[in-house]
């Protein structure tokens, strides 16, 4: 701290309120405060902080927008929280190459504003205000991942500050490379436990010429997911394919004042050239009818489309409104698509025994779904039930070849499941951690214990 | 060896001819023989061999089909070559999930035969007979990478035997996961230096309903690449987009008996639904005309299509026929698309001074191209010129933000360029190597020296 103060002056925060702001979780996990917060402005400054902390063995917790929900930015061992949000420059937009390089603190919203004039966009559209460095670090995804992939597929290269302050570049601007170990993917999803990402090179895409949204209601979940499997096999130009269950639809009707059928519902967006979209939409309607769709509603105007997607985006708030004052725990398993109906059915049967309210929304094209478990963490019995359901769901998903977390990451919340999910591979992760961060200063206590 | 002989009996080969077969390179690099070859049949057997070799510090060189061209399967330090080609079971095809799991020795040709009935295919279609374990290990790609990605994007999970014989699983069958470090990508592209991949889980795709091939000739390379940039920005359903230069076209006319214009030429394949293909082909023709195409030929029948792609696939043989008896060195740089015309122009200017014949073919949608440098490695002056051009090209590519190897990998041939390409990140690769393979038995001397 003595070494940091003269360098960072008023960008070193030690007040209780600052520490509380940075050490509080966007979730059911309890707060854990850092000793201080440093607001950095450049890769060089990050290197400076890390070199100092590494010398003293002081923990460093990278912080983008703090929107992660598994306690990733908490500081259970104290130390320094590194606020990267001021590193917010879009450094380069390559229109011909359809790529860009940004500083880690740029949000995806900001990036897309800057891209619009070039007719390009970056597709990972998660439900929160988040930074691209944070999104890379949690391997984030969104509603369009079914089409464009997640941060795993879309990060081409990184600038990273290693724990000892050394600066490296990984990957590059070439679309593909067979040159050496894939360091980029080592840092994507590492949740700040291996170093600090300061710059990110991303793939971009042209804005499609045409797009059409459909809302489809089904009698049961099997019918809805069956329709999704077929649409994927036909290779339709699916841009988004989102699922809500009956309770979620009820919540939406209550919250949004809509009058939609209270049954399993798909939001589907198909994009491409105008004739491709027309063809694929017609085919999708046939598939939906064959699968027993109860109602198929095509958005007819841009306003209509915006309305349907606004309803989708309000789903979390609608869910929470079922039980005002309760934030809930959002589960995040992802399973092979063929297992999705069985996985959902089994967990719903468990939930039915408990009386817990747990509306469901899913990125169903990827086999990823969230239940918002609306329990009161202050009530020990409810907490126990909620945690038991969360645990049960992860066990189910793992037994079906799935993963404990499709997109939210591990942090503290999913740490207990890592041994079951990875087995002996977890030891290899520990070995990598020790090789990259021998003093163990980077975001200690996250993903796994050493 | 004493420990291996009783276990593997006639599957342990020590004859000179066997050692020569496995220690010869598909390239200009000189042979380097192993002490013995072991033909394994299962993950357990691989684990057995590795545990024994690890105890004795004996080098192990994994061997799939041996088609790699940078000396990856040579044994410069002797030891055991591990022939994995008998591990050739397709273990599981998930039609609903559009994925499969295969043993590492399955070739892509075999896999696609097994998939055809399910209406599915695996898209990485490189120019050689290769195994999926070898393709994963070199991070291979092919003509359809512009649409579907390379092995980097298409491997979902692996079974890996670590150097000490421990068996781990990485990734899984879920389409996405934010759970822990990305071990899958650590092994994809590691060229057998970190362990042996014994099983691979792959993404599959539905065979598109329609497809159309076009051959387009241009007056100059800039016009051809300009047309590619536009087609990509319009988001056309490009499945393949391959470029040949004038010398390559001359070679093709000579070898295939065709009468195609001797100028820069694009092979384009567009796939999708029938109306999407019709729309995109029309748009592509417009773009090509605007870019100044000299001739645009649409394949009209399936035979015609097959003929055009056969010509493309024969390109390497056609190139070599320009100078019979000479295999040549195939360069492999990959640069951002915007840099491609400048990169090609600069290297062609260098080549012009030397009198070297060097026809060009490229996976131009990815910015990756190959020059076949037709020099005689037995002639010292020619060898020097050839190597100087190869080096100059890598330097050019790196200065343009590109990579020394888009798809062939590093092996021994590209090792001299790793420091220039990766800088201090190369040290991190070395640290990872030491963490995963502390005795240094796995494919020693490849990618980098320790
Ligand atoms: C309402 C809501 C909706 C959400 N919807 C989605 C969704 O649809 N999809 C999804 O994937 N997630 C979703 N999330 C979770 C969250 O938004 C993501 O995890 C996001 O990627 C976090 O980004 P951030 O900038 O807020 O990172 P932070 O929360 O600040 O940090 C996340 C992790 O990354 C590390 N980190 C941050 N920046 C860096 C850096 N530059 N270098 C190294 N490490 C760094 C941190 O130490 C921490 O471990 C949602 C969250 C909320 C609250
Ligand atoms: C005519 C020709 C055309 C080619 N065209 C292309 C092309 O279009 N695209 C392209 O990418 N490449 C191409 N190549 C190069 C080559 O085919 C690829 O590198 C291919 O991926 C090698 O596969 P393989 O099974 O032959 O592997 P091998 O040559 O046997 O091995 C390659 C490397 O991987 C390691 N390895 C092999 N199997 C395993 C395993 N199971 N676990 C761990 N390590 C393993 C080996 O030790 C070695 O380092 C071409 C080669 C030729 C000769």
TrEMBL record, chains A, B:
InterPro entries associated with the record: FAD-bd_oxidored_4_C, FAD-bd_PCMH, FAD-bd_PCMH-like_sf, FAD-bd_PCMH_sub2, FAD-linked_Oxase-like_C, Oxid_FAD_bind_N, Vanillyl_alc_oxidase_C-sub2
Pfam families, per database record: FAD-oxidase_C, FAD_binding_4
Protein's name in the database: D-lactate dehydrogenase (cytochrome)
UniProt source species: Paracoccus methylovorus
Cofactor dependence: FAD
Protein keywords: FAD, Flavoprotein, Oxidoreductase, Plasmid, Transit peptide
Record keyword Cell cycle present: no
Record carries keyword 4Fe-4S: no
All residue ranges annotated as the FAD-binding PCMH-type domain in the record: 30-207
Segments forming a coiled coil: none
EC number: 1.1.2.4
Family named by the database record: Belongs to the FAD-binding oxidoreductase/transferase type 4 family.
